[in-house]
Automatic annotation (TrEMBL), chain A:
Organism: Hohenbuehelia grisea
UniProt record similarity statement: Belongs to the Mrp/NBP35 ATP-binding proteins family. NUBP1/NBP35 subfamily.
Name assigned to this protein: Cytosolic Fe-S cluster assembly factor NBP35
Compartments, as annotated in UniProt: Cytoplasm
Domain of life: Eukaryota
Annotated spans, Disordered: 1-28
Residues bound to ATP: G78, K79, G80, G81, V82, G83, K84, S85
Major localisation: cytoplasm
Keywords from the named record: 4Fe-4S, ATP-binding, Cytoplasm, Iron, Iron-sulfur, Metal-binding, Nucleotide-binding
From TrEMBL, chain B:
Superkingdom of origin organism: Eukaryota
Similarity section: Belongs to the Mrp/NBP35 ATP-binding proteins family. NUBP2/CFD1 subfamily.
CDD domains in alphabetical order: Mrp_NBP35
Binding of ATP, residues: G26, K27, G28, G29, V30, G31, K32, S33
Main subcellular location: cytoplasm
Amino acids binding [4Fe-4S] cluster: C204, C207
SUPFAM superfamilies from the UniProt entry: P-loop containing nucleoside triphosphate hydrolases
Official protein name in the record: Cytosolic Fe-S cluster assembly factor CFD1
Subcellular localization(s) per the UniProt record: Cytoplasm
Gene source species: Hohenbuehelia grisea
Free-text function comment from the UniProt entry: Component of the cytosolic iron-sulfur (Fe/S) protein assembly (CIA) machinery. Required for maturation of extramitochondrial Fe-S proteins. The NBP35-CFD1 heterotetramer forms a Fe-S scaffold complex, mediating the de novo assembly of an Fe-S cluster and its transfer to target apoproteins.
Keywords: 4Fe-4S, ATP-binding, Cytoplasm, Iron, Iron-sulfur, Metal-binding, Nucleotide-binding
Length: 325, 296
């Protein structure tokens, strides 16, 4: 008996150009520009020369653009959903609370940009000027750039493979008119892949001041963070410290504290001891943090009396201390 | 042309699998891996002969080995390809494959760009000796990028077997990413079996008060709005978190072989197990029409 197969094709919508011939191997294929089908295609030359050679021509431009940025800080975590974007936003708001401090956020989570929502600027669009793309300003001294500002609708998926993501990250660094910044915070997607490597490579010459690693207390998250630490050491990024997020929960009804994500293996404290990395602090889980993020308001301003606010502010002070500011 | 051969290698391997369920979510940390693990455990427990596989394509942050209590195991090579690690020991009905089995040291990072990830996924699909499976559950990383595109590309010859389950948490920030993920399934014509809302409420152990730690109801609303079947909501279950977290390090299981079976016994005692059983029965009902086509 022969099983019938309807081989529905799954086109990679972004890898085959609209004007490509029928058997186009896709621009990301090894055969791009070299396959038989490519003869006579208008894109043949571009595809054939696609293989990267020598240093990226964007590098000097990035270095020039970044020369007016004093501190570049990465917010990393191997695991998703531990609060990277929320932390980045709080950190930026805290820096920008001082009128004299110019702060920027670059959101390189291309497939799942959360920064625009968390900062309450989700419906903005990027504008181009003669000096480059203008960041979106949350307030006078807090500029943001994210792929979220470039999509026609927030429903649209960004189905991009690595090279396209790298291209956009390079544009974020060289084409965005960041101006003079005291701090540029880079919010990253989970994992240790294209986005991370690209940011590190593009900023190698300008220098990264350090990375803040975010984790939650349970082992499943910690093991991803261990991988991220290994990544930082491999590529030579200084780790400013570790933040344990969602650390304990205070019931709004009975004020009893419980652990939602139990630190079965000692949590971030143990990890910090084992790896010799400083534990910057632990932020308790407060449902109002998530709510503030959904509404795009600053948690620190809205709930100054929450224990989580105190924890955030202590961590931020410690980061400033470490940086020597 | 070389590409054609690869596809047949993948399709030959996957032809002995009845259903392939891809667990997706645009957002990270919403519980894809824990849902995948629970889905596999429930499908496994649903029948004494069910054979289930679980493939973890989260290459830079594999969590499945830890959750199924097989952290630290190594993959063996046989003449017929890689042998999956069996979480239920000698019974050999719950196979598991992850990049976590391939790295030497568990703290080692896998720093790979797209093309390398693509190659690894192709190998996972073409070189793993799954044998006859009723279900293959695929756990994915967050986003809609290389891993997802590669998966669908390589599995295009067995496309009719594919379906997806989307996991979300209730807050708006997560739902936005999940919406993108849904757009992805539409762009790629991947049938969606339904939406699961995870981390929906937390029961305070001291007073029993339910707190909506990450808001509530967002997933259900979205499912209605988008015309998706809503499979159910799962509250934050600390027992489950602890169980999946300490699966391998737990003090109780001394023998490596029976330890994982014990995982199932212990899992079935958690409050989530009961809720999840219902989710799985809805889900398999949604799958049923495909099966009848398949068996013809």
């Amino acid at each position: 008996m022969i099983a019938t197969q309807t081989a529905s094709s799954v086109p990679d919508p972004l890898s085959v150009p609209a004007n490509a011939p029928e058997h186009c191997p896709g621009t990301e294929s090894q055969l791009a520009g070299k396959a038989e089908a490519c003869d006579g295609c208008a894109n043949q030359e571009t595809c054939a020369s696609n293989t990267p050679k020598g240093p990226d021509p964007a590098l000097p431009l990035i270095t020039a653009r970044m020369s007016t940025v004093k501190r570049k800080i990465l917010v990393l975590s191997g695991k998703g959903g531990v609060g990277k974007s929320t932390f980045t936003a709080q950190l930026a708001w805290a820096f920008a609370a001082d009128d004299q401090t110019q702060t920027g956020i670059m959101d390189v989570d291309i497939c799942g940009p959360s920064i625009p929502t968390i900062l309450g600027i989700a419906s903005e669009q990027v504008h181009a000027s003669s000096s480059g793309w203008s960041p979106i300003y949350v307030q006078d001294n807090l500029g943001v750039m994210s792929v979220g500002f470039m999509l026609p609708s927030s429903r649209d998926a960004v189905m991009w493979r690595g090279p396209k993501k790298n291209g956009l990250i390079s544009q974020f660094l060289k084409d965005v008119d960041w101006g003079d910044l005291d701090y540029l915070l880079v919010d990253t997607p989970p994992g240790t892949s294209d986005e991370h490597l690209s940011v590190v490579q593009y900023l190698k010459e300008s220098g990264i001041d350090g990375a803040v690693l975010i984790t939650t207390p349970q082992e499943v998250a910690l093991q991803d963070v261990r991988r991220e630490i290994d990544f930082c050491r491999k590529v030579g990024i200084k780790i400013l410290g570790l933040v344990e997020n969602m650390s304990g929960f205070v019931c709004p009804n009975c004020k009893g504290e419980s652990q939602i994500f139990k630190p079965t293996t000692g949590g971030a404290k143990k990890l910090a001891e084992d790896t010799g990395i400083e534990l910057l602090g632990a932020v308790p889980l407060d449902p109002r943090i998530g709510k503030s993020a959904d509404y795009g308001v600053s948690f620190l301003d809205e709930y100054p009396d929450s224990p989580a606010t105190t924890a955030y502010l202590d961590i931020i002070d410690r980061i400033k201390d470490i940086l020597g500011d | 042309m070389a590409n054609d051969q690869e596809t047949t290698a993948v399709s030959r391997r996957l032809n002995s699998i009845k259903h392939i369920i891809i667990v997706l979510s645009g957002k990270g940390g919403v519980g894809k891996s824990s849902v995948s693990a629970q889905l596999a455990l429930n499908l496994y427990a649903a029948s004494p002969t069910a054979r289930v596989g679980i493939l973890d394509v989260d290459l830079t942050g594999p969590s499945i080995p830890r959750m199924l209590g097989v952290d630290g195991h190594a993959v063996h090579q046989s003449s017929d390809g890689w042998v999956p690690v069996y979480a239920d020991g000698a019974q050999g009905r719950l196979g598991c494959m992850s990049v976590g089995f391939l790295v030497k040291n568990k703290g080692d990072s896998v720093v790979w760009r797209g093309p390398k990830k693509n190659g690894m996924i192709r190998q996972f699909l073409s070189d793993v000796r799954w044998g006859d499976l009723d279900y293959l559950v695929i756990d994915t990383p967050p986003g809609t990028s290389d891993e997802h595109l590669s998966l669908l590309e390589h599995m295009s010859p067995v496309y009719p077997k594919l379906s997806a389950v989307i996991v979300t948490t209730p807050q708006a920030v997560a739902l936005m990413d999940v919406m993108k993920c849904l757009s992805f399934t539409r762009a790629t014509n991947l049938p969606v079996l339904g939406l699961i809302e995870n981390m929906s409420g937390y029961v305070c152990p001291c007073c029993g008060e339910v707190s909506n730690v990450f808001s509530t109801g967002g997933g259900k609303d979205m499912a209605e709005r988008e015309g998706l079947p809503f499979l159910g909501s799962l509250p934050v279950d600390t027992e489950l978190v602890t169980l999946l977290d300490a699966a391998s390090g737990g003090g109780e299981d001394s023998t490596g072989g029976s330890g994982a079976f014990e995982l199932l016994v212990r899992y079935e005692k958690t409050p989530s197990a009961k809720l999840f059983r219902e989710i799985v029965s809805t889900l398999t009902r949604n799958l049923a029409p495909d099966q009848s086509i398949d068996s013809k």
